[in-house]
Amino acid sequence: MESLPKPAPAVRTAVAAPEAARDGSPLVLGAALLGFFLISLDALIITVALPDIGRSLGGGMSGLQWVVDGYALMFAALMLSAGALSDRIGARRAYGGGLVLFALSSAACGFAPGLGVLVAARLVQGAAAAVMMPASLALVRQGFPDQAKRARAIAIWTVGGAVAVAAGPVLGGALTASVGWRWIFFVNLPAGLLALVLLARVPASPRLPARLDAVGQVTAAVAMGALTYGVIEGGDQGFARPLVVGSLLVAAAAAIAFLAVQAKGAHPMLPLALFRSRVVAVSLGIGFMLNAAYYGGVFVFSLYLQQERGQSALHAGLMFIPMTALVAVVNLASAKLAGRFGPRVPMVAGQLTGTAGLVALLTIGAHTNVWTVAVLMVPVGLGGALTVPALTAMLLDAVPADRAGTASAVLNTGRQVGGAIAVAVFGALLAGADTFLAGMRWSMLIAAAGLVLTAGATLTLPRGEQT
């Protein structure tokens, strides 16, 4: 295996094991799982409520895109540095602080008097989620020092996120239709409080030496934020506007500066040497496209079902049940297939399944039966569920053990960026096309083309390649 430099301290939280830890504490797992559930839930629960939010607070397509992307943007931009913060102050303290901030920002979202306040609160929510994510996994590591018990605990922790992703559109639709869209944020408060009660009984976490890459963090956030702004506002106002052009130029300059800092910095938050591994580079591309297809698709079809077909928020949420209901079962099937045939088989099969679903969605028209739409969305969800477990296993097998935290953080960051960029691009296509259906079809076509490319890249990886 190719020699890689020593791990960046920013991501050691995923693998660090304090010696004074309780073995198998259900309190640790309960607290960590609740937080991960909330983080995953809030990425999707908002989508079905977007039309109601637009009618309540005003704002066009670009405003609704920011409601979704504000969360994903901050989540992705801060995730790598959040691991270092968790190390420096201790996982329990970082997780607790993130939970409190998440609950407060959720309340601010629920009480938002206007769209600007809602977007600002969503940005804070995303920042809190970024802090919680690595700290929650570090808590699991702390509470389960035994490897076998830890593996089972992490599996349960992962299922919590999968259930949240599956439940998001349905719960969002049910709450919006019954008590109003503001309750999709208020529902976070009791769950967050319960997580804090459990966390209070968890042993304190040790503080570990970790350096923060401040320049890298700032340039990464500027690059992601400027790119997202340029794409969203360009779709809404036109890409020739000076502010849009300037934003895209700032994004390019910040991205170049970020890469330069990571290449020359003594303690980079994203060691570029990782990308010498074909597995790491291809995995990042696959993760990006999977989330682009899934989150972008949920965004587009939430609007289609309500704005174009006149469905209520509840009915629109129900339309996503066929797509999400089998996710957990297919996750298990993916692991079994990977164990028998190697990870490439479920990865390629999953990406091609998702591609088939996206191509089938191109046939949807203004009067297509809505249950036909629901069935045609199923392969998109199943494709991701089939791919992600094998993808994660292949990635972690491709790097040394002391790089596992870094590799996992890179993959999750890439996936979040994929979802955020897809919402920005697809929303721009919907706003700029002659008809909604035309924009929808272009969106699905772009997502399908991306998955075909990443499926082809997967085939270039030799069986059992480790570097």
Explain what the structure shows:
The chain has 467 residues and is mostly helical. Helix content is 76%, strand content 0%. It contains 18 helices and no strands. The protein has helices at 26-44, 50-57, 61-89, 91-110, 115-143, 147-178, 183-186, 188-199, 214-237, 242-264, 278-308, 313-318, 321-324, 327-341, 344-361, 370-397, 404-432, 436-459. Helix 1 runs antiparallel to helix 8 (188-199) and helix 15 packs antiparallel against helix 18 (436-459). The radius of gyration is 21 Å and the shape is globular. The N and C termini lie close together (6 Å). The model is unreliable at 1-24 (pLDDT under 50).
Q: Roughly what percent helix?
A: over 70%
Tell me the distance between the termini. Answer: 6 Å
Number of strands: 0
> Uncertain regions: pLDDT < 50 for 5+ in a row?
1-24
Shape: globular
Query: How much of the polypeptide forms β-strand, as a percent range?
Result: under 5%
Number of helices: 18
Average pLDDT level: 82
Q: Strand pairing plus helix content: what structural class?
A: mainly alpha
Biggest beta sheet summary: none
SSE pattern: HHHHHHHHHHHHHHHHHH
Radius of gyration equals: 21 Å
Brief overview:
Helix content is 76%, strand content 0%.
How is the topology of this model organized?
Blueprint: H1 26-44, H2 50-57, H3 61-89, H4 91-110, H5 115-143, H6 147-178, H7 183-186, H8 188-199, H9 214-237, H10 242-264, H11 278-308, H12 313-318, H13 321-324, H14 327-341, H15 344-361, H16 370-397, H17 404-432, H18 436-459
Helix pairs in contact: 1-5, 1-6, 1-8, 3-4, 3-5, 3-9, 3-17, 4-5, 4-8, 5-6, 9-10, 9-17, 11-16, 11-17, 11-18, 14-15, 14-16, 15-16, 15-18, 17-18
